[in-house]
Q: What sequence folds into this?
């Protein structure tokens, strides 16, 4: 699913009115009515007090349409105008008139904290104060209103975006934002729903289809894409009946040091279970027996070093090389890594300490093949690109790094974001149970295993990140968040593949996301 920028959303809006020959007021009617339908379906006329807080722009206009529909259908509604400015939008004013013509119970105009109504915990708050048009911090009394929402502990439904959030930057004052239980977003989810600094402002979100021009949606290139099953399915490569292991490539997994052989074990096993035809683990000698005993399907080549890798030499042709898990950052290993990079011609997946080695010696970056995949966790990323002020600064820095070195960067986290040049891909699978030792090693193995089978590095990365998270989601059903370990993610990989072809449970037109699932 495309994640459009604010400018693209406004343009989609404008083009829709033009191509469908409708007014912007009609489009607002659709938007507000969609919100009403969503609530009506769930509430079925229940007389829970609903407080609808409307700003004076088009987000407020949506709120007024919703209020009017709720009133017409007999709901227990109170409508407020949060009058933070006298510059009211045209469609707000039209809907202000319409609601006044519908009911004698006119909206209450709020201009300061003294006007705030009583809100009980069991009431519902609808937040239509600011939409994507926010361009400066809200006034202090509006912030106080947001604090009152929070203090009430009422269920809060935000329209389009939690008020106070920007679409393209973080907020400095974390209290000047609505904390939504649910956000109903028009046309496309907003990038801020997925970033560590801002995702906390909505527990769940859903996109409502308001009939934006289809051609515009299809033809417009978005800088950000949300990756779910529908996006990865086209990558899937079915197997030919007469295929043999030679068709699915040979992964060379280089890593390990004394006490960290397990990382290579996890990555090699993942590569095999992701479907690689063959996997060879390249280790210091101390790892030989344990790896051969634990993984009979994996071949082993030993380095001359007993406890660490000291010179990387092997005499077969690997399809792809995964390097870095458990490898350490000793001087000898740095030398071996440098010599390896200078001669290697194969696609690379670089993780963990190999990223730290690159960060220590940035001159080596020029030896990385185009489309090398780097999979840093936040600390490794910081060593590589330096500190960042906030999530947007981080994304910009990674985009620049990706373009400068022609590499794919996987920013691991709750919503892993893959960056390839200007393009950002936000993953939707995974859960906090995966915050456990070795789960990153598993990802390295999966991506390497996919590249071995012939997936292009970018497809392998997006598909691999998706499958890794999906395996975690499947595994957590059996083990729970606390007891999930990296090995369980590998064990669920087969089910994650099978799940790709299960019947969809929801239409591709609407996406639903629950941060806790
Ligand atoms: N296709 C779509 O996405 C549609 C969007 N609509 C709604 O329109 C919204 C955008 O509407 P607007 O552009 O009117 O913007 P908002 O309703 O978000 O903001 C209202 C106005 O307040 C001003 N403003 C911004 N920050 C302020 C601050 N801190 N203090 C005082 N004033 C401030 C802005 O200049 C803006 O004109 C969307 O979020 C959505 O809810 C719908 O009505 C129809 C379809
Ligand atoms: N809260 C979370 N939600 C979803 N995925 C997570 C979460 N925490 C960690 N992960 C995933 O688990 C993996 C952890 O990788 P990493 O930190 O490198 O682990 P390790 O170094 O122990 O192998 C990443 O793919 C990350 O996206
Ligand atoms: K809002």
A:
């Amino acid at each position: 699913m495309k994640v459009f920028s604010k400018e693209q959303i406004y343009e989609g809006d404008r083009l829709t009115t033009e191509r469908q020959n409708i007014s912007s007021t009609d489009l607002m009617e659709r938007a507000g009515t969609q919100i009403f339908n969503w609530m009506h379906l769930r509430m079925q006329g229940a007389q829970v007090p609903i407080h609808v807080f409307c700003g004076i722009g088009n987000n407020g206009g949506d709120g007024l349409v919703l209020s009017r529909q709720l009133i017409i259908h007999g709901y227990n509604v109170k409508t407020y105008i949060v009058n933070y400015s006298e510059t009211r939008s045209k469609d707000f004013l039209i809907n202000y008139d319409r609601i006044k013509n519908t009911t004698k119970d006119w909206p209450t105009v709020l201009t300061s904290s003294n006007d705030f109504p009583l809100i009980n915990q069991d009431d519902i708050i609808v937040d239509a104060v600011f939409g994507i048009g926010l361009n400066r911090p809200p006034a202090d009394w509006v912030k106080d209103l947001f604090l009152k929402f929070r203090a009430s502990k009422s269920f809060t439904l935000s329209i389009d975006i939690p008020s106070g959030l920007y679409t393209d930057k973080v907020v400095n004052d974390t209290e000047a934002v609505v904390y939504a239980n649910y956000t109903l977003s028009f046309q496309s989810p907003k990038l801020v729903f997925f970033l560590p600094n801002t995702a906390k402002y909505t527990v769940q979100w859903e996109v409502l289809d308001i009939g934006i021009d289809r051609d515009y949606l299809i033809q417009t290139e978005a800088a950000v894409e949300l990756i779910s099953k529908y996006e990865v399915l086209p990558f899937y490569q079915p197997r030919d009946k007469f295929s043999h292991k030679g068709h699915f490539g040979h992964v060379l997994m280089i890593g390990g040091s004394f006490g960290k052989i397990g990382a290579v074990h996890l990555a090699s096993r993942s590569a095999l279970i992701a479907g690689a035809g063959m996997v060879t683990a390249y280790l210091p000698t101390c790892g030989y027996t344990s790896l051969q005993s634990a993984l009979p399907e994996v071949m082993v080549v030993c380095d001359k070093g007993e406890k660490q890798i000291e010179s990387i030499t092997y005499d077969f042709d690997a399809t792809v090389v995964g390097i870095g898990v458990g490898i350490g950052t000793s001087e000898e290993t740095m030398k071996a890594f440098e010599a390896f990079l200078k001669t290697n011609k194969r696609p690379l997946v670089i993780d963990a300490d190999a990223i730290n080695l690159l960060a220590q010696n940035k001159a080596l970056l020029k030896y990385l093949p185009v489309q090398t995949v780097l999979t840093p966790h936040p600390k490794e990323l910081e060593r590589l690109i330096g500190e960042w002020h906030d999530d947007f600064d981080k994304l910009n820095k990674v985009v620049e790094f990706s373009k400068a070195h022609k590499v794919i960067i996987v920013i691991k986290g709750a919503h892993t974001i893959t960056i390839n040049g200007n393009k950002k891909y936000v993953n939707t699978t995974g859960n906090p149970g995966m915050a456990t030792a070795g789960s990153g090693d598993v990802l390295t193995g999966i991506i390497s295993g996919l590249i071995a089978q012939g997936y292009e590095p970018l497809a392998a990365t997006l598909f691999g990140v998706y499958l890794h998270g999906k395996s975690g989601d499947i595994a957590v059903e059996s083990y729970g968040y606390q007891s999930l370990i990296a090995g369980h993610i590998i064990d669920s990989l087969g089910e994650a593949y099978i799940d790709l072809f299960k019947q969809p449970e929801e239409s591709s037109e609407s996406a639903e996301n629950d941060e806790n699932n």
Summary: The domain at 2-222 is CATH 3.40.50.10260 (Rossmann fold). The longest strand covers residues 180-186.
